[in-house]
Hints:
By secondary structure, the chain is of the alpha+beta class. Helices cover 59% and strands 9% of the residues. Strands 1, 2, 3, 4, 6, 7 and 8 form a seven-stranded mixed beta sheet that branches. Strand 9 (227-230) and strand 10 (233-236) form a beta hairpin. Helix 10 (287-331) packs antiparallel against helix 12 (347-361) and helix 18 (455-468) packs parallel to helix 20 (493-505). The protein is globular. The chain starts with 5 loop residues before the first helix and ends with a helix. The mean pLDDT is 92.
Amino acid sequence: MSKMNDLQKNLYQLLVEFDEICKRYDIKYLLAAGASLGAIRNRSFMPWDDDIDLYITRENWNKLRHILETEKNVLPEGRSFVYKENTPYYCNPLPRYVDTTTTNIYISQAFTGKACGQHLELFIFDPLPVGDDEKERYLEKLHIYTELLSPYFIVNKNTSLEDWQKHYKLYKKYCKRVDREGEEKVLKELEDELTQYTHEECNQYIMHWGIKNYIYNKEHFEELGDFGKFEDGQFPIGHYTEGILRVAYGDSWMYIPVYDEQISHNGLKNDIPFEEYTNRYLKKIDREKVFKKYKRNKRNNAEVFYNRRKVDLLVAKAKVKASYIHIREKIEGKEDYLYDLLENKDYTCLNEHFEDFARLQSIGDVRKYNIMVPISDKNLQTFLFGLIEQGQYYEVNKYLNVRKAQEKHLGEEFNEIENICEICRELSIARYDKKDLELVQKLVDKYEESYPDLLDIYRAKIWVMENKAKTEEDYKEIDELCNSVLKTYFFDGEIMAIQAKAKLECGQKEEAMKLYKKSVENTRNGIIWQKVEDECGYSRMNVERELIKELNGEE
Length: 555
């Protein structure tokens, strides 16, 4: 049973209303981002979620916009649709379905006024041209368009220093055009260029955003008839939804982040009509004058942004240099000892030695600027093999990409690491995304002899056995294999959950319940959490909700 907070209840009501409008007018859309993750992983909001995002193609958005602008009584009372064409100072490519009776004010939209209620946000997708050169030019134009559109902040701030220099050079060129020809004309020209391609001539769609390139295969938008349960309703989630999530969130999309990594949006949120706030400050502001200052400040900030980034780079390097003093004694000169820990599968001790390195190498600016924490190749290989053997292949690229930035040709050991990660990824896609028993079995047969002790192969093999199991003897066989695997991988909650089901089917209810609870304490895989709740009624997600309340100081 889901436990929505008051904000989530209101967002859900907005979703129900929007869904009804779309059904009435034959508008196609998809759940996106956290709502999509929630629908696939646990059929509800994630406990910390404070928004709902939706995907819509340009064709469907244009159809909806036409209806909004030509027909009466489309929206319920207390609702509005805010988009850049109908709302002054709303410089956002993402339309919003807004509840005007509530407040949700972010700094970046406080100046707009009308966008400051609790809302659904629509991410518009456009056909992407075919061909590498055409795509590169398209992305350059998209990034310039979003940079020119928003005067409130630097949109493309997460690019590399090299890419920023290219982007800023083009941005300055377009700023000069804006000064000569006018902003409206230049933006319109860019919009026309970015929306000129048709569904028939493309094989991919791109989100009309700019902050990050989200590119999906056309198949995700061709069959919009797939629905998923989200809270009390069924909503469109798209064709091959897990593939969409893998593009958006990476190979670890099924894992629920720990508290420190759970993303909520800072802002003023309550059930008071937002105009009670916005009227207090907007009537005291000459918005046109302030808007011009925003634009001027944006250009000034962009001009000094490169130098600021260089300072950030120096600070990150200094942080690595200072922090490595405390890491050195744990790993430096201990290559053979650490490798022996790996060989002996002493993962507890191995992880203790590498935990400070992993924490330092994972810091945002350290990764962004490809700063390599000083570590020998052998130690890095031991660390990465350790991640793979513990079922965390999806973490490897986070470290390996930084190493590649130093030297593209990495040698045989690193190539082997990449090959094994690709095998694990194949198994993950076959099992989680495609749910294809036959394909999973083929992959197990193909790789089991070469990698007999790979945890991801054990997981896949036992998953196939569970899905084919019909008799008590089948479940006894699963139980025995799980016992064998857990002697080495005693920490793996995913295998524990399958063993719990086997014990339950064999009549060992008390043992099964203990193992179910232990399994969800040993994994953050949301698919496993939901599996356990479905099979025995124990909700690890409700435990998470209570933990988050406690950490947030809520009663």
